[in-house]
Amino acid sequence: MSRPLRLGLFVVGAAGLGMLLVAGLLDLPRFGDYPGPYGDLIARLAVPQRHMVNTVTAVVFDYRGFDTMGEELLLFAAASSTALLLRETREHDTDDLVAGVRSDAVRGLGALAAIIALVVGVDVVAHGFITPGGGFQGGVVLASAFAFLFLTIEYRAFVGLVPMVAAEPVESFGAGGYVAVGLLSFAFGFSFLQNFMGLGVPGRLSAGGSAIFVNWCSALAVCGGFLVIFGETLQENIAERYGRSRR
Amino acid sequence: MVPLQIVVILFVALGAAGVVLSRDPVRQAIVFSIYGFGLVLLFLVFQAPDVALSALVVSGIAYPLVLVSAIARVAAQRKRKGSA
Q1: Yes or no, beta carbons of B72 and A237 under 8 Å apart
Q2: Are the beta carbons of A232 and B63 closer than 8 angstroms?
Q3: SS3 call for A127
Q4: Domain containing residue B37
Q5: I need a surface site. Which of A29, A172, A202, B28 has the fewest CB within 10 A?
Q6: How far apart are CA B67 and CA B40, in angstroms?
Q7: Domain ranges (residues) in chain A
Q8: Which of B76, B4, B17 is nearest to A236 (CA)?
Q9: Which residues of B touch A (CB under 8 A)?
Q10: Could you tell me the CA-to-CA distances from A133 to A112, A127, A174 in Å, in that order?
Q11: Nearest chain B Cα to A240, which residue?
């Protein structure tokens, strides 16, 4: 295709897309316009009904915990398939490989960032029902602490400190624990995943009832899932760069 | 809409253009993480701190890490094949 023709096609396409965009933007509801009743109802009911100040987490782990279980298992499936696809390189192939981090600045800042991420991660998970955050967000922050750790120390030390074999059990324990808490509700005569504990004091760490377990289980599942993905990718990378042929 | 929101929207638009226009994949991954940070600010100024938290880590650390790691692996493989 010649250059003028391509340019002509682009101009026609871009003009059409532009017109559609402008037409769509003109018809957009005003900022903050909210027609549905559910959000307003939840915002009013979450504290008296569920003792949870952060309504987002209340919805995710209590009102519709079953939906979140699906999301949880989705991540589990994604991490497991990554592990399956990249299973060519196993832990013992990379055991004796050394990929040293030589920059002192990277070491220092990485260690600091890892510590901060770890503390923030635990804080975000623990206060899920009080301040923005919860198991999902906190789990990702926790996993990022280990990513910083990898940047800080050499690969061998990283594997020694954070055995990648442990990532999969942590992930499975989290995902399985979520379902187990749901099943436990049956033992108290409730329906699946229904809150079966005292709801605690709103605004305190005790708030949330049995959804607290759901929260922590999802943190483990998310953190483990990300660690599996990180670990497999890094393993492939290290093996390819520093000689898989020594197998 | 407050001025801060307009500034952040412009920053996101610039970042997105930067990601599309950078040619080198490694550079693109790094520009992407800056663009991702813009998205985090966008979520924050539009009052969605829960989303901002996860976006911060996913688009700022996790995604670039996996991407750069994959690029490095492919580059090493290509180099080894070239020398062999």
Answers
A1: yes
A2: no
A3: coil
A4: 3-83
A5: A29
A6: 19
A7: 53-243
A8: B76
A9: 1, 49-50, 52-54, 57-58, 61-62, 65-66, 69-70, 72-73, 76-77, 80
A10: 22, 7, 17
A11: B73
Helix axes B49-57, A135-152, angle to 10 degrees: 30
B64 CA to chain A: closest CA distance, Å?
A: 11
Burial of A71: CB neighbours in 10 Å, binned 0-12, 13-18, 19+: middle
Contact B57 A141 (CB under 8 A): yes
- The closest alpha carbon to A87, from A233, A245, A230, belongs to A233
| Angle at alpha carbon of residue A150, lines to A146 and A151, rounded to 5° | 120
pTM: 0.83
- ipTM for the predicted complex comes to 0.81
Q: For residue range B63-83, list pLDDT tens digits in order.
A: 888 888 888 888 877 877 776
For A20-39, what is the mean pLDDT? 87
Residues A138-171 as b/e (b if ≥16 CB within 10 A, e otherwise) read bbbbbbbbbbbbbbbbbbbbbbeebebeebbebb
Please indicate whether residue B58 or residue A13 has the higher confidence score (pLDDT).
A13
Nearest residue on chain B to A245, alpha-carbon basis: B80
Determine contact: A56 vs chain B, CB below 8 A: yes
| Counted domains in chain B | 1
- What contacts A183, CB < 8 A, 6 or more positions away? A192
**CA of A162, closest CA in chain B: separation in Å?**
17
Closest CA to A194 of A69, A63, A72: A63
Write phi, then psi, for B47 (nearest 5 degrees): 65, 45
- What is the three-class DSSP state of A1? coil
Q: Does A140 contact B70 at a Cβ distance shorter than 8 Å?
A: no
